[in-house]
Design a protein that fits this description.
This protein is an alpha/beta fold. The protein has nine helices and 15 strands. The strands form two sheets. It has a nine-stranded mixed β-sheet with strand order 14-13-12-11-7-10-9-8-15, with helices on one face. The protein has a six-stranded parallel β-sheet with strand order 3-2-1-4-5-6, sandwiched between helices. β8 and β9 form a beta hairpin. The longest helix has 17 residues. It is globular and about 65 Å long.
Length: 327
């Protein structure tokens, strides 16, 4: 594909995420945003108002206009069907995280894309957060010991059919795999549903093949959003706030307990813009995308393992009577 040819791109889904995709795509050089697909009239109306692009009620109408690539920001349970329909027509695909509802559906998408020779990328947008990039750079030659990630906030107004593990923690599972460049081999999870039907508190612990211990604390019970990452290595302690985009490292530890501290430079890019540019670059050059389908499936597989632990209601006032100890 000519590196300078205008790419015709469509977006599937005009919810919050899809509208963001459309807004960013419409402003990218060398791109023609062909339009956004959504069955809901109010979603289409919002897309017209915010982006001013054409809208379609169904995928076939978009495909009929001729598109080179699509981004899929439809509800997760539709990813499989939409991705396969696009891949079958030779269209390059970026699918929002999680790649699909099940590991098997994810593998189907990966296999179809490979067989068709099209680019498949998964939208794990946190990798493109400049603070995450700064953390990754700071630890690149370090012997990582442990990683702790907190991703908490209030109950989301636009909730789909998933709990915090698939909605939030899947970001951090991907980050742990990316920071360590290792697979997760051991999973322990504690889940509870305090106010929702699905789990809304999750404490997840992992060990990677390389021996790194990691944990994720995530919930929908915190009145404000917080997104923090800390990484301990043999030579450094790195702290990052993914919202304020401040990254600090402690280093030069002395036997008397003193150490040095510095703020690291962090870029200003909009993560979604950086992600879409990376996808379009992979489409143009045929190179491996920044987040492959296989990586998306691996993170989903770990998230589903976390969910297979029995869920429990959160603590309530009622306490069971103490058990008798049999001597």
């Amino acid at each position: 594909m000519g590196a300078d040819r205008v790419l015709r791109v469509g977006v599937v889904g005009a919810g919050v995420m899809g509208t963001n995709h459309g807004r960013v795509m419409a402003g990218l050089p060398g791109i023609e945003l062909v339009g956004i697909v959504d069955p809901l009239p109010e979603h289409r109306a919002r897309a017209v108002q915010l982006i001013g692009c054409p809208t379609f009620t169904d995928l076939d109408s978009l495909i009929a206009t001729g598109v080179d690539a699509v981004t899929i920001a439809a509800p997760t349970h539709l990813h499989h069907q939409v991705a396969l329909a696009c891949i079958a027509r030779g269209i390059h695909v970026l699918v929002e995280k999680p790649i699909a509802s099940t590991v098997q559906e994810g593998r189907d998408i990966v296999g179809a894309a490979r067989a068709a020779g099209v680019t498949l990328m998964v939208g794990h947008v946190e990798r493109f957060n400049p603070a995450v990039a700064a953390i990754k750079q700071a630890i690149k030659d370090e012997d990582i010991l442990s990683i702790a990630i907190t991703r908490v906030g209030p109950f989301p107004p636009r909730m789909s059919d998933v709990g915090v593990v698939i909605d939030l923690a899947v970001h951090d599972i991907d980050l742990i795999r990316w920071f360590t460049e290792s697979d997760i081999v051991d999973v322990q999870s504690q889940l509870a549903n305090a106010v929702a039907d699905r789990e809304d508190i999750a404490l997840l612990q992992f060990r990677t093949a390389s021996g790194v211990l990691a944990h994720i604390n995530t919930n929908w019970l915190t009145p404000f959003k917080a997104r923090t990452v800390t990484v301990a290595t043999r030579g450094k302690y790195v702290m990052g706030d993914l919202l304020t985009r401040q990254v600090t490292e402690c280093f030069g530890f002395q036997t008397d307990g003193s150490y040095s501290m510095r703020h690291l430079p962090v870029g200003q890019d909009e993560p979604l813009r950086a992600e879409l540019l990376a996808f379009l670059s992979a489409v143009r050059t045929g190179s491996m995308p920044a987040v492959t389908g296989e990586q998306g499936v691996a993170s989903l597989e770990i998230a589903i393992q976390c969910l297979e632990a029995p869920k429990k209601p959160a603590a309530s006032a009622a306490r069971p009577a103490p058990r008798k100890v049999v001597g």
